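User: Please predict the structure of the protein below. I'd like the answer in structure-token form so I can feed it into my own downstream comparison script.

Assistant: Understood. Taking the following sequence of 211 residues as input:
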Amino acid sequence: ESFEQSGSSLLTLGFAVDHHTSVVIVMFVEATIGLGLVALLISFLPTMYQLFSRRETLVSQLDVRAGTPPTPVAMFRRAKVIGWIEFLDGFWLEWERWFTELEESHTSYLALSFFRSPHHGRSWITAAGAVLDSAALRMAAMDLPRSWQAQLCLRSGYLALRRIAGAFDVTYDPDPAPTDPISITRDEVDDVCDQLRELHVPMKDDQDQAW
């Protein structure tokens, strides 16, 4: 009987009725909860889909510019071929905004981090890594005028990923030293720099300093 009255109230069906005052109060509370859940679903799902869609727009755009999965070499190769490599400042600004929105949305709605891209070869976290690697290479290794846009993009990116990691209790060093070990090896960086030189991308001569 209790189960029947509870289900009838929560789902607002109203076929089970009890006229005791205390039970009627509980039935009204459950009916309100039921309506509230429906209202939350109606409001939250479109909001989350909108945030997901905005995240994936730039991820899809990166597919055009850097391949699938995206890599810095593929992006700079295309940029060099089409004469875009000296005009990347707008690209860094777009991704700085993307990282800012990513931090806000993925710390407010933690489930968004698990929403996969529609294309099986794309991932928002892989895209973020490729953009940050590209910005780091642009700043450290390329012989081009200094780009504050790339620097802010890099900072925006690692701050966003740190705060998302913090929301999931993933530990990280908040103040790493330049000499701390990293997951990328010197050989990998040298290989990327050599590939970019072969593409006639202007690179700095002092590769030790770039590293």
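That's the full token string. The mean pLDDT is 89.
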